[in-house]
Structures are given as C-alpha cells and as structure tokens.
Amino acid sequence: MAGIQIERVTKRFGAVTAVADLSLEIRDREFVTLLGPSGCGKTTLLRLIAGFMAPDEGAIRVGSATLSTPAGVVPPERRGMGMVFQNYAVWPHKTVYQNVAFGLEVRRVNRAETQARVARVLELVNLAGLEERYPSELSGGQQQRVALARSLVVEPGILLLDEPLSNLDAKLRERMRWELKELQRRTGITFVYVTHDQSEAMALSDRIAVIHGGEMMQLGAPRMVYTQPANRIVADFMGLVNLVRGRVVRAGGDDSVVAVGDEHPIGAVLPPGAVSGQAVLVAIRPESLRLTSPASAAEALGTVPGKVADVTFLGNIIDCHVTLDDGTRVRVQVDAGQTLEVGQRVGVRFDSRSSSVFSS
Hints:
By secondary structure, the chain is an alpha+beta fold. It has two domains: 233 residues, Rossmann fold (3-Layer(aba) Sandwich), CATH 3.40.50.300; 113 residues, CATH 2.40.50.140. Helix content is 24%, strand content 36%. It has a six-stranded mixed β-sheet, sandwiched between helices. It has a five-stranded antiparallel β-sheet with strand order 2-1-4-5-6, with helices on one face. Helix 2 packs across helix 3 and helix 3 packs across helix 4. The protein starts with a strand and ends with a strand. The relative contact order is 0.11.
C-alpha cells in the first residue's frame, strides 16, 4: 500500500480548531509518531486518517485514492486500515481465538483460512497456545497483544495506534515498545502512532511529528527533533531542557556570542536575522552541560560560574541543580562517579554545538 498524504487538513469543533491547516506525508512502511500534550489535536488527526470523521478543509489520500474531503469520507471498514485503541477494546466474553477471528468472520473468510491466519498472527505477537483463554485470564500486555492481533489478522496496509501502551506499567510498557518495533519491521506495515510520551516516540519512530495547538511544529527523525528543535515549544516538550535567558553580543555566523548568567559570554548558533543586543533564549539539555572548576569559569569562553544547589543520585547518573551567579538555575546531569556537594562553587560549560538559540 502507498503512503498517506494529509493535505492542509483542518478540523473544528464549534469555536475550537483541533487541527489547523496541517500537511503531512507518511511514507509506505514507515513508523511515524504523532507526539504532543493532551488536547493538541493528535488523536483528532488519527481519527481523521481512520475515517471516523470528515475534515472541514483539506484532503487525506492513500496513494492515488482520495479517502477524505469535506464532501465525503470513505468509511473506516473500506480503508484497508487497522486500529488499536488505548483501552484494548477486547470482548470479555470471547476467547483469544474468537476475538482475533471476529474480523475475518465478518468478512466471510472460510474456516480453514481463518484458522490459518489466526494461528499465524498469534505466533507473530507471541500468543500461540493461549487461544482458548479469556481476557480475564490474561495480563495487560497479553490483552494488548490480542488487540494488535485482531487488527493484524485482516492484513491491513496501515495500522493506527492511539496511545496503546498508556495503561501498562513501566516495565511492561518498555518491553512492548520493543515488541511493537519488531512487529513493524517483520510485517512491513505502515504504523501511525499517537502518544504524549517523548521517550516512547523516540524509541519507536522513524520520524516524529510534534503537534501543538493543532499545528505541526516539527517533523523529523528522533535524534534531529531532540537535538535540533525547531522552536522553543519543541525544545521544551522533548524531554528535559534548560532555557536560559541571554543577550546577543556578536552576530557573526560561527563566531556568534551570547551573554548569559550575569553577562558571561558563550558561543552560540543564532537564529536567522538575530542582531546584536537582541534578547534570546538558549536551550540546552542537562546532559549537554559540563561542570568544571570555578577558576576555569572566569577564563574560558562558554563557561559560567555558579554554585551547586541540589544533588540527586539516580543510579547511572547524578542529577545536579546549579544556581548561576545571576540567580538562574540550570539542571546538569553528570557521571555517577563524580563527587559534588551542595554549596560547592563550579563552572558550567555550555557547548554551542549542543545548544539552540531562540528569539526571546
């Protein structure tokens, strides 16, 4: 099946615009995640792709076929798509086999082929041997696999998943991430996945579409979205980030300088059009900051003096809060073997290659 083209789609609910003039192309066999906070429009967009509602403007196409416009919508059952919901939606009175076989029975697939396809998909999701169990006899992860198997058995070209792991505990959720990614690789099905969990999106996706206020803020590979956020909204949403106020001292390409932390200069890559004297925000991840001696802070470009305000041991890392001399607090994550004490004077080293600068 060809990829999905979402062309300038808008969806309104009364005075609220849930999806605003959004365009997105999802390639065949790709795993794309729609990522954003609650209420951002990501689930509405997924339901538009599924055909559960019509757009107010724009169009949705798969290959050369137009599936959704304001004038009409191809119904969900004729789209060649499967959908997995947050709450599993398995029938409690049916066995695993009966749950999975239901879609084939509705399509009047003969018994021999139904048995073969159910057996094949249960093997694929690691549920072989559990055919006669009821949902009440299964764990949460197994019930989620039943929901996956039920969608896969009808052999969809596209699988839509609406926060399918949110009801699982942390360890099971992590294991199911791996299983979902392996499943997508083995089947070659196009996955469109909705979540608010940044780590989940980065672990699973070929590309991430960050949605905010019904608009797409950025589309790209997980590493790019994390390390090169397009704007402050993306930087702030994608994991932990320090947002430090500064002022442009020199705007000169690779030689640009921003003053932060009581006018200490650091190297910076400035946004287009930035000029000297402009107020900016420097965004940098806690793991991209380095702690140095106080002496080097007074001498080195990019190092700002401060005092350790809090130290938390997290096993593999130390999570440290440092108050810069101007009162700005930044979060720094360092190796667990480093010894730090509250009140200790340090230098905080900013790396221009690992930071982003946005207009304030």
